[in-house]
Specification:
Keywords: Membrane, Transmembrane, Transmembrane helix
Organism: Gulbenkiania indica
Pfam family, one: Polysacc_synt_2
Shape: elongated
Strand order of the largest sheet: 10-9-8-11-12-13-18-23-22
CATH class of the largest domain: Alpha Beta
Number of strands: 23
Strand content: 5-15%
Helix content: 40-55%
Protein name: NDP-sugar epimerase, includes UDP-GlcNAc-inverting 4,6-dehydratase FlaA1 and capsular polysaccharide biosynthesis protein EpsC
Family: Belongs to the polysaccharide synthase family.
Length: 629
Amino acid sequence: MLEKLLSFSRHHKMALLMLMDALLLPLALWSAVVLRLGGVWDPKLDPYLWIFIVPPLWVLPIFIHLGLYRAVLKYVDDKIVATVFWGVTLAVLVLTAVIVLARVTPFPRSSVIIFWVFAMAYIGGSRFVLRGLIRRIDAVDAPREPVLIYGAGRAGIQLMLALQAGREYRPMAFVDDNPDLWRRTFRGLAVHPPRELPALLAETGARAILLAIPSASLSRQRQILESLESLRVPIKRLPGMADLVSGEVRVEELKPVSIEDLLGRDPVPPRPELLSANLAGKSVLVTGAGGSIGSELCRQIVRQQPVRLVLYELSEYALYAVEQELRALAPGLEIVPLLGSVTDGARLCSVMQAFAVETVYHAAAYKHVPMVEHNPVAGIVNNAFGTDVCAAAAETCGVATFVLISTDKAVRPTNVMGATKRLAELALQARHAEGSRTRFVMVRFGNVLGSSGSVVPLFQRQIAAGGPVTLTHPDITRYFMTIPEAAQLVIQAGAMGQGGDVFVLDMGEPVRILDLARRMIHLSGLEVKDDSHPHGDIEIRCTGLRPGEKLYEELLIGDDAVPTDHPRILRAQEYHLSAQLLTAHMAVLREACDRLDAAAAFACLQQVVHEFCAAEVTADWVAGATGVH
């Protein structure tokens, strides 16, 4: 019967609730009078039986005005008690006035107080009884997944309340590090110490752990995740506290734990004067604006209130996507989306002059190592000559600051991509040595989490597909940093250089990629399939190093690095070539590229980048197909 009533329309449900209250109010008054008279009816009240019928006439309008019937029964909480309290209190005052004005002298006056108690119990209690019945029906109709909540603080309790009112998860218990909370209960859920997690999972049948610690530091969250890895259950987390406070997400909107949570580190607060130095009130151009780093630079830049942001991008779709996002993010800012290649000097000059560009962030580059390895001429032209062409345009147009986004692969490179980025650095250093009025700054860092070509999204896709997860070598290590942190540090480093500087970002500790793959599998609630676990879920398969790939990446060519005012930015002390020598090498390299002579270009690249230790398997696919060696 109750299930059929729940299928009624909203207006019909409100009408039924009002009808229920219209019956409960006379019952409450009759109960109060009988209790006051000791269970014996006073015949003197027979002429005044009408007074038991009329309370709904004024009480129901009061309840309607207070919004009692707008509450959804399934989600009513303790606040409804206040609504019923004020409604019943006003009803009692009106009843007292009616009794006095109608001179109902046989009516026991103290029964009015008893009526208040019964009305509170009948009206308020009926709501909570109905809420319990509705939630029980929901639980039967939609079996919920049992889960444990890690964190019994305010966020954890809010999550529990939200889940209990929902239909997806059934919270079974809390886990918390605070000994003061152990053995306490909240709404029937006990708080347990973390050491009891394995037993709790077995006893409750919980199939996931939900992290409710949004205010914990990243380092603390990382420690907790590492301790949970061995349990082999899926782990989800609450959004960050900033998102919760802003209202952008709700407490019950759980997310899978990302690898950023496991590898992330506590951020160093940025220095506002460094963030705004090259941006506030200036006309800024970002090349490669649609890429992973370029688009994040743009997001950070618009927050610093530049006068104009010029987006320069070769990919039409990438340019469209980042333009739409930025217009929504900064509706009042002048955003100029422009298609073009960084190898087109005339186009770049016209753009910089037309929009009076004062700061350039050069993020455009080919960066996928194996791809560039087999397309060396294209990589040299885009990464090395593209940077030099862009720098020349900046000098011609009087740009004040030019910041190159470089890479750790430029240090003692073993691949064409890294060598071209090192050559780009040398080109800017030579221009600075010649006394350029443009301040050239280079910022070098490692892999960023979630960028195109990163192993993280590749592993995520492979795990979702059931494996295998592929990596090139069991001992390979890489540095990682989140894209927002990298972009923020790039902007700050760009404001610190005097010209010709190579800045190196502190990337933290290197990560063994095999360990990264294992953690991602475990945090998905799966087991690695290997000799020790032949019945595991996901196999990890090593495929061998790719052309030009290094086992270990470095951030410095020399051994010395000078600290700066920022704890995560260092200044490298490295060699550079004279402008005359570099110009001669670049002329030979340009001629080889114009002839599409990959072998000659490759040989010249080895001469100009002294520490370039080329891989033996490097080969131009076009040259190979045409029989040119």
